[in-house]
Each structure stands twice: as C-alpha cells, then as structure tokens.
Amino acid sequence: MKYHLICVFFLLSYCSCVQTSDIKSNIIVVDVAKDYPSKDIYLQDIAEVEYLPLATSDSMLVNDDFGSVSEEGIVIKGAKVGEILLFDRQGQKLQGRICKRGQGPEEYNAIIYNIVDWKRKEVFIADYTSMKVYDFSGKYLRTLINTNIMEMNVCDFNQDYLLCSYNKEGSKEPYYPYFIISKDNRTIDTLLIEIPRFIASNRKIIWDDGHISEAYGDLPQIFHCTDRIWLTNVALDTVFVMHPDQTLEPVMVPIHLPSTNEEAPLLFFHGMNDRYAWISRIPRHIKIKMSDMAANIEREEKVYMYDRKADEWFEPIYYNHDINNHNMNPKFINISAVPYGYGLVQLNAMDLIEAYNKNQIADEKLKKIASKLQEEDNPVLMILKFKN
C-alpha cells in the first residue's frame, strides 16, 4: 500500500512564499514560537449546541473521563475499574458493556486505548503489553497485538485495519514508523512514510540530590477524531491529513521547521475543522525537577486557537452563554472524541444542580435537564457543531 507524500522541496518553497494572511489557502502556516493574545469566546457564537444527558442506573455509572460520541453511539469508561460502557446515540440505553480487567490470558490489566468498531461490533482494548478484542457483550475474541503499547500510537483506520505508529528514540537515521494491522489476522503492512530522524524535546530532569538525567518528551505521531486522521510527527515539518483514499494532504506548517532549526519549538497539534484549528507548543529544551514531576506540577503550555475567516490566532477563554457561572466555563474543548467539525464538553451533574438552584441556567432545555438530576448522576454531554 503506497501513500504519496508531497515533496519536501515543494513544502519548503511553499513555506517561503505563502503568508498567514493568505486565508484562501488550505494550508495553515503558524509561528509556533509566538505568543498570541487571549480572547473571550462564547461557545454559542462559534457552534450550535446540543445537551445530551447520560442515563443513570446501578449498571450505567460512568467516571469523569471524556468519552467519544459518534452517530452510532457513545463510548465512555464506566465507574468500575476497567469497565467500558457503550450507550446508544441518545445516551439512554446500553448497547454493550466490557469489563474484563485481570491478569488472565483473556483479560487486560489497564485501559491505555479503547477503540470501538460499531459495524463489526467489536471493541479493541490495549493495556501496557497487548491489545485484545471483545464483542459488545464482553466476550473475548482474540489477541491482536503483543508488544509494548506505551511506545505506540493506535487509532481506527477503517473497517479492516488499525493505524499504528511507534517512536524510534534517538534515531539519527531514516525510519518508517507508520503501519496498518489487520483487525482479523494481525497482518502488518508498513506504510512508505519516511521519518528522516527522531525529533523530540530534550528533557533534563533534576533530582533532589542534584544529579541530572536526560529523557525525551515524545509527541503523538497521530491525531484523530472519530472519522479523520492526521499524521503529526514533528520530523515531517508538516501536519498531514490522511484521506480515505489513502493519500496525504498537508494542512499545517510551522514557520520555523524543527528539522532545520534545532532551537525551534515543536508543534503540538490539537485538531482542526473547516473554520478553526488548535495547537500548543513544546519547548525544544526543558528542565524540570523530579519533585515537580512527582507532584504533577509541570508547566502547562497554552493552547492557541486559529480562526480561518478572521485570519487570527489567539488564546481562547471559553464561556458558556447558557450558564451564568464562571466556575463552569470549559477550560478546553475535546476535538478528538467526536466527528470532524464537532467538539465535546462534559458537564458535571453536581455542578449543574448547583447552577440550577442558583437560577444561573438560561437555556430552557438545559434547565429542564438539570431540574431532574441527582448529585450522583452521570454527566451531561455538551456537543458542539462548529459553524463555518
């Protein structure tokens, strides 16, 4: 299977002549090193909003992790450790449940990835060392991968294949990290997408006794929503969208290319649609204390948003017009858990009840939903359909 990359020389010449003001171009050119001003964004101004409550019962309790929403249904982790719940699209009925956590040959010891194929009615669950396949009732079907999953990116490619990639840490030679694996028989086909060398942020970790160890800060090589895939390896100097016909199209290029500029910050791609795009940056060199890592207080890089129509980059400060409570304004929008052109925000039931009791909910449909909630109920999903 061959994938056609745009010639590197074309990309370099393109970057040299195209400007960010050229909003007619399909390629977004971004200065990753630049700081952009903050801007207040009301969700209702940029998207049509749908509120979707998830049914609650003893057998349908979920945790606070983001799920995924598609036309076929909703996937979300259950309240029990190692549980996956499959709701219908309305969030009211269960279509399936998998809970096979354990140490046996047909079980998983954690959930690193979970991928649902609604047409095949199969769920692919990866723990640290393998990926196993189950039907919607939780019956074990087969083991697909036996390797260190922590070194891989995995996503659904089509009805027959998963798309995978791996990092070849420290490599100064070209390599081919992308491959597809058959959902049926584990057949692997390496894709002809060459990475010229491994590029990552260089992390110096300072221990309490003063000695320093070095590590890499890896970036995802794949970003996906439920129906689209982007290749995001920074060594490509470009973000590519992978089309269903297996061709690649460049969609975003940083002005300062990391393959030629050793100090250039690295582009962290957070998703895009026809109107907007989201990114953050990772400094090329990072120093951090081990005590800060242990306390989970590493510096978080800002997420920037791009408006194609206005040709404007900014740091978004989100507000929900339907709720007059700043504590409930979303910190970010999940773009990967929904189809292309959509976003997802998860609203906690207890917070909604408090806002309802304080008469802080303006939207009548959401007000009706909140009036029926109990504190221990499942969250309400706020689904955004972005305006073009």
| Biggest pleated sheet | 5 strands, mixed
Radius of gyration: 22 Å
Low-confidence stretches: 1-24
Strand order of the largest sheet: 1-21-20-19-18
Strand content: 35-45%
Q: State the distance separating the first and last CA atoms.
A: 34 Å
- The number of helices is 5
* Backbone shape: globular
The total of beta strands comes to 28
Question: What is the secondary structure topology, with strand pairs?
Answer:
Layout: H1 8-17, E1 28-30, E2 38-42, H2 43-46, E3 47-53, E4 68-69, E5 74-77, E6 83-87, E7 94-99, E8 113-117, E9 122-126, E10 130-135, E11 140-146, E12 152-156, E13 161-166, E14 178-182, E15 188-190, E16 201-206, E17 212-217, E18 222-225, E19 228-231, E20 239-242, E21 248-254, E22 266-272, E23 276-282, E24 285-289, H3 290-294, E25 304-307, E26 312-319, E27 342-347, H4 349-357, H5 364-371, E28 380-386
Parallel strand pairs: 1-21, 2-26, 16-24
Antiparallel strand pairs: 3-28, 4-5, 5-6, 6-7, 8-9, 9-10, 10-11, 12-13, 13-14, 14-15, 16-17, 18-19, 19-20, 20-21, 22-23, 23-25, 25-26, 27-28
